[in-house]
């Protein structure tokens, strides 16, 4: 049985599973090797973790030391993490997409002693900056042929392969087993389990100190909120474990419940992996769901003739059925029969592409567009939307399995208090808890603040920044604007994102951007309008749509010019912009736009690893083009 208490720590989770829930030889992890998914048992996982713990102790690594990981999701991540957690060391996972400068900053700020490295590209990055990192002692590639790269390295850091450490650790284990067992019992809930460096849309990344208490209580609360998760579930993991969302919602939940955790090979192979693994649960980001929605709608409506009519009829039936379910009403005999036919003819084929066994998808990291939530609701795939930040471990609220309000991020989880604070007067408008939930409650809008078990210990080596975000009453200030709607939390935007036009009107970009993102022609959009008379935008078109509509080859997308000025493409985008503008207030509508040839990327520094746009960076980088958008309109007037 699942036994989580206030004193449970991360290294106790798996051991509780093998003692009370699953047999030691049951599959815990699944990795694709030689073309097939192969299981790795709880026993194998714990043995590998123990081997790493023994090696850590033998090499002078002790409780409180910070150990790094820059690696894609894989079993090696789990072994290394479990090995360090049970001796009281601290996991510092680094986004693989970060620049060498950012990686160097994190290694030095955290004082990392060893770093697990996932592939040759990342090893080259680490080796370039290794000698600028005094604390770093060991570099551990998970691949054996690292010598092709490290042969040219002449620095002082030791480079040891994962397999060699595993073998050495297994040999050392008999001498260190008692010490490991003692160390595991000495890990306290208040101890820091991980430093997760925030993406930093403004300024230098800061290391959020998340404790065992933070993580375990977040898992415990989420399992209470979504009680349908059980040991028979299969999770497919593809979001990075360097991000707190996947760490908690997939990895730690599987550790607590005894569910199986399978690793996707890559985003490109995710569709294939879903069919192979047949997951029952997945953590996802809205952009993935948008793409599934776009492809399904395009495939269904482009078929033409009778097939298109059946497709559209099925979605109309799905919509009616969803409305009845959301209202808590039965479908009735006619609608039930129609819904079964719609599922058999249309929806089942879409579901088959997800593996056919999904209980639900958990969406987080950004706002889920209402139209996307409705699409999945219409076809009978449940989307539970969660909300939180790195600093809140991360979940603060999540949709209840039996009660969904599309457009909100669910009910407050047990054990915390969430308040709405007036952004001007700083007066608290309302305080809500899990227990105070009222499905009819509505509140005014303001900044979302929180206190309770989910709030981080603070920023590593940065008391000044900690004091800015955690006030004297223990409230963590999220920087997000929101309100309560139907008892659920609803996110409006980021305070830093709010645009105030020249007339003093507050404009919330996220809601506007999501309106325009309904167009399949638009892949990304960035709004401009702060201290301006009206809204303009930088639009990144869908490359797939451009290819299909204008018969373009790859050379077109590789041209060095940042912006597309072809009149036929501008008009093509403008048609959808005009149509969707009718859904917005006049002051929210885009008056002019430019079309960016290449997407905003992490590598270019324009978006964060969690896909949030860096407003200052983009506005500075494209200042000339932005000014031209306003000059053109002045001339036109």
Give the second-level CATH assignment, the architecture of the domain at 10-187 and 226-280: 3-Layer(aba) Sandwich
Quote the distance from N terminus to C terminus. Answer: 70 Å
CATH superfamily of the domain at 10-187 and 226-280: ANL, N-terminal domain
Strand element count: 28
Q: Beta-strand level of the residues, as a percent range?
A: 15-25%
* Mean model confidence by pLDDT: 93
Tell me the helix content.
40-55%
Strand order of the largest sheet: 7-6-5-3-4-8-9-20
Radius of gyration: 25 Å
* Level-1 CATH class name of the domain at 10-187 and 226-280: Alpha Beta
CATH topology of the domain at 10-187 and 226-280: Rossmann fold
Poorly predicted runs: none
The structural class is alpha/beta
Q: What is the overall number of helices?
A: 21
Largest sheet: 8 strands, mixed
What would the principal axes of the Cα set say about the shape?
globular
Structure description:
This protein is of the alpha/beta class and 637 residues long. Among the domains are: 233 residues, Rossmann fold (3-Layer(aba) Sandwich); 139 residues, ANL, C-terminal domain (GMP Synthetase, Chain A, domain 3, 2-Layer Sandwich). 41% of the residues lie in helices and 22% in strands. It has an eight-stranded mixed β-sheet with strand order 7-6-5-3-4-8-9-20, with helices on both faces. A five-stranded mixed β-sheet has the order 12-13-14-15-16. α2 crosses α3, α2 crosses α7 and α12 crosses α13. The longest helix is centred in the N-terminal third of the chain and has 25 residues. It is globular, with a radius of gyration of 25 Å. The termini are far apart. The mean pLDDT is 93. Keywords: ATP-binding, Nucleotide-binding. This is Long-chain acyl-CoA synthetase. InterPro entries: AMP-binding_CS, AMP-dep_synth/lig_dom, ANL_N_sf. One of its GO terms (molecular function) is long-chain fatty acid-CoA ligase activity. One of its GO terms (cellular component) is membrane.
């Amino acid at each position: 049985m699942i036994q989580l208490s206030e004193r449970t720590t991360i290294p106790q989770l798996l051991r509780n599973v093998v003692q009370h829930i699953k047999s030691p030889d049951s599959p815990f992890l699944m990795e694709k090797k030689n073309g097939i998914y192969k299981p790795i048992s709880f026993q194998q996982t714990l043995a590998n973790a123990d081997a790493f713990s023994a090696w850590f102790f033998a090499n002078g690594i002790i409780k409180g030391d910070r150990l790094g990981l820059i690696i894609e999701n894989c079993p090696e991540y789990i072994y290394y993490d479990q090995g360090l957690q049970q001796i009281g060391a601290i996991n510092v996972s680094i986004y693989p997409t970060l620049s060498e400068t950012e990686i160097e900053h994190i290694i030095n700020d955290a004082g990392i002693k060893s770093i697990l490295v996932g592939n040759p590209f990342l090893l080259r990055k680490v080796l370039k900056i290794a000698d600028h990192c005094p604390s770093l002692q060991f570099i551990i590639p998970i691949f054996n042929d690292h010598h092709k790269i490290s042969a040219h390295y002449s620095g002082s850091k030791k480079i040891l392969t994962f397999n060699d450490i595993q073998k050495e650790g297994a040999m050392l284990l008999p001498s260190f087993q008692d010490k490991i067992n003692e160390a595991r019992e000495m890990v306290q809930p208040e101890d820091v389990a991980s430093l997760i460096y925030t993406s930093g849309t403004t300024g230098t990344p800061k290391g959020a100190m998340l404790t065992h208490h933070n993580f375990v209580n977040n898992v415990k609360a989420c399992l209470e909120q979504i009680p349908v998760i059980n040991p028979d579930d299969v999770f497919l993991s593809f979001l990075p474990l360097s991000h707190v969302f996947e760490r908690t919602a997939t990895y730690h939940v599987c550790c607590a419940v005894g569910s199986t955790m399978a690793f996707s090979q890559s985003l490109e192979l995710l569709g294939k992996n879903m069919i192979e693994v047949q997951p029952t649960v997945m953590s996802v980001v809205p952009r993935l769901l948008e793409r599934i929605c776009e492809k399904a709608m395009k495939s269904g409506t482009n078929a033409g003739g009778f097939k298109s009519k059946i497709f559209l009829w099925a979605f109309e039936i799905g919509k009616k059925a969803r409305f009845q379910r959301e209202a808590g009403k039965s479908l009735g005999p006619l609608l039930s029969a129609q819904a079964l036919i719609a599922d058999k003819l249309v929806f089942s084929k879409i579901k088959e592409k997800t593996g056919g066994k999904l209980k639900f998808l958990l969406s987080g990291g950004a706002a889920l567009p209402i139209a996307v939530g409705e699409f999945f609701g219409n076809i009978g795939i449940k989307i539970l939307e969660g909300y939180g930040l790195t600093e809140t471990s991360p979940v603060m609220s999540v949709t209840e399995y039996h009660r969904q309000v599309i457009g909100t991020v669910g009910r407050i989880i047990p054990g915390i208090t969430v308040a709405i604070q007036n952004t001007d007067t700083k007066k608290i408008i309302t305080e809500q808890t899990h227990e105070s939930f009222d499905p009819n409650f509505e509140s005014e809008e303001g900044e979302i603040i929180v206190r309770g078990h989910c709030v981080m210990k603070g920023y590593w080596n940065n008391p000044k920044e900690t004091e800015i975000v955690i006030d004297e009453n223990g409230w963590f200030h999220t920087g997000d604007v929101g309100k309560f709607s139907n008892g659920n939390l609803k996110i409006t935007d980021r305070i830093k994102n709010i645009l105030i036009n020249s007339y003093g009107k507050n404009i919330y970009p996220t809601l506007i951007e999501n309106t325009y993102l309904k167009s399949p022609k638009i892949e990304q959009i960035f709004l401009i309008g702060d201290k301006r008379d009206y809204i303009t935008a930088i639009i990144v078109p869908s490359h797939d749509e451009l290819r299909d509509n204008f018969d373009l080859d790859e050379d077109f997308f590789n041209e060095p010019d940042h912006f597309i000025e072809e009149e036929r493409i501008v008009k093509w985008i403008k048609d959808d912009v005009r149509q969707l503008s009718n859904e917005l207030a006049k002051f929210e509508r885009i008056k002019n736009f430019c079309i960016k040839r290449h997407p905003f990327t992490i590598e270019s520094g324009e978006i964060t690893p969690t896909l949030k746009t860096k407003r200052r960076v983009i506005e500075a980088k494209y200042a000339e083009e932005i000014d031209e958008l306003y000059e053109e309109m002045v001339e036109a007037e």
